[in-house]
Design goal:
By secondary structure, this protein is α+β, with helices and mostly antiparallel strands. The chain folds into 3 domains: about 90 residues, no CATH class; about 90 residues, no CATH class; about 140 residues, Alpha-Beta Plaits. It has 12 helices and 25 strands. The protein has a 5-stranded antiparallel β-sheet with strand order 22-23-21-24-25. A 4-stranded mixed β-sheet has the order 1-2-3-4, with helices on both faces. A hairpin with a 5-residue loop joins strand 18 and strand 19. Helix 4 packs across helix 8 and helix 9 packs across helix 12. The longest helix has 17 residues. It is flat, with a radius of gyration of 38 Å. The N and C termini lie far apart (about 90 Å). The structure holds zinc ion (3 copies). One zinc ion binds next to loops. This is Thaumarchaeal output domain-containing protein. It comes from Spiribacter pallidus. Pfam families: TackOD1. InterPro entries: TackOD1 (IPR040572).
Length: about 450
């Protein structure tokens, strides 16, 4: 064994010359090795690092620990050089990025997968677990509902299910996978049923189980005492091959119910929840996102009222501005609308009317826009509209629509409220070379304004 720094207990040996590249658990096997591996995987900053054990711990005798160790460890190494060579391969897959996202369990799992492009994230089967299948690695990253996390990351396109390992039927009450399928009497729902072929006497019409008809080696109706010799002439055998000792009901097939052995919930088998357990890998989209450190869900730039967020607006305005600066055929108009109470001591009706107008405007403004035009709201009562390729006529038309909205019910300006509309075209000298933020700043601080009359 070629480990220079053999530590006591389960202290792992560090791999790496300039910086820590991985860890080797030395001198442990069986359950102790599992516990040491879990401990290292739970580490919130290094849980995704390559973690090996020395070859002496190769699970031979303790084969029962093999599957869980396969999930937690990156394999077994013969010495420090072997560990170093292999750890470097994991980091190469991550473009040697040392600051992979690890701020939550989603990020840790995605960073882990980024470093292991050739493996599938596989579950282990554990009969003692309520869901039967477990992902020990994801559990070590601090997740209680692994299926929820996997479904969520797959829905976002960051991971993909490579194959299905099992299709489970889970209890609708506790989501456990330990359902018992029990045959019961369709009449009294009791368990006291038995297989018992029915006989039907043609003479008197009596139907009962075959046992009741047995008279020595012959058959005799227990009701009318007729000897039954020929099937089809004296008697026949109806389809009801089951009998209930509890209620004497005779039936063709018993009813099957699913009974949860965890919470005792009883239901029809078709009411059980289907869950597919699978093996997962990182997608290309996932790889790009982890490398960029963007593992969290991005909020949509489009708000429910059809406006876009101010950062998205600023970004697109910068883009339009750059286009207009470099391509003569590209131009745009930027419009700012501002509604403010004229003075703080104004009366309540103006406040109410202003609040109502602002709400109405934010709900309606995107209906006034044409395809390609965008609007945002930077503060209460301040709206911005970006109109790419809009000629004077289009600008005038939008202004007219908005001016109709910016009045009270009788078409007069709202009392006590100042309304301003300012605009800047991309051929305005002030617009040249400016990014989105600068353009908005210049338009907001401009002194020549078009006041709403
Ligand atoms: Zn249950
Ligand atoms: Zn019964
Ligand atoms: Zn009979």
């Amino acid at each position: 064994m070629a480990f220079k720094t053999l530590n006591e207990g389960n202290n792992p040996v560090a791999v790496g010359r300039e910086r820590l590249l991985g860890l080797v658990i030395v001198g442990l096997s069986g359950d102790e090795l599992v516990q040491a591996a879990l401990h290292l995987r739970r580490d919130s900053t290094r849980g995704h690092y390559p973690i090996f054990a020395d070859t002496q711990a190769w699970p031979g005798q303790e084969a029962s620990q093999g599957p869980i160790l396969d999930c937690l460890l990156d394999g077994y190494v013969t010495g420090e050089d072997d560990a170093l060579t292999r750890a470097e391969q994991y980091w190469a897959a991550a473009a040697d990025k040392t600051d992979l996202p690890v701020h939550n369990s989603d990020a840790r799992l995605l960073s882990y997968l980024l470093m292991r492009p050739d493996i599938d994230l596989a579950p282990i089967r554990d009969w003692a677990s309520p869901e039967i299948y477990r992902y020990p690695l994801i559990e070590a990253f601090g997740v209680t509902d692994c299926a929820e996390l996997l479904n969520r990351l797959a829905a976002r396109g960051l991971i993909r299910r490579q194959s299905i390992v099992e299709r489970l039927r889970l209890c609708p009450a506790c989501h456990g996978g330990h359902a018992l399928f029990v045959d019961i009497c369709p009449n009294c729902e009791g368990l006291e049923i038995e297989q018992d072929q029915s006989l039907h006497c043609f003479t008197c019409g009596h139907v009962a189980g075959e046992r009741a008809f047995l008279a020595g080696a012959a058959l005799q109706c227990p009701n009318c005492r007729t000897r039954l010799r020929h099937i089809g002439t004296d008697y026949d055998r109806p389809m009801e091959h089951y009998g209930c000792r509890q209620c004497n009901e005779r039936f063709i097939d018993p009813t099957i119910v699913a009974r949860c052995s965890i919470c005792n919930h009883q239901t029809r088998p078709e009411r059980l929840i289907t869950r597919e357990i699978g093996r997962y890998t990182l997608t290309e989209q996932g790889r790009v996102c982890v490398l960029a450190g963007m593992t969290d869900e991005m909020p949509s730039p489009v708000l429910p009222d059809g406006l876009i967020t101010p950062p998205a607006f600023e970004y697109l305005l910068s883009w339009q501005s750059a286009l207009a600066d470099h391509h003569r055929q590209c131009f745009f108009t930027l419009l700012m609308l501002r509604m403010r109470r004229r003075d703080a001591s104004s009366d309540a009706p103006a406040d109410t009317q202003l609040a109502r107008k602002l709400h109405e405007l934010s709900q309606r403004i995107h209906h006034a826009l044409e395809a390609g035009e965008l609007a945002t709201r930077t503060q209460e009562g301040e709206f911005w509209i970006l109109m790419p390729q809009a000629g004077e006529e289009r600008v005038r038309e939008l202004m007219q629509t908005l001016e109709t909205w910016l009045t009270d019910d009788s078409g007069r300006p709202i009392a006590g409220v100042d309304l301003q509309a300012r605009m800047m075209a991309s051929n305005d000298p002030r617009a040249s070379g400016a990014d989105g933020a600068a353009l908005m700043q210049r338009l907001a601080s401009t002194t020549t304004e078009r006041a709403h009359a």
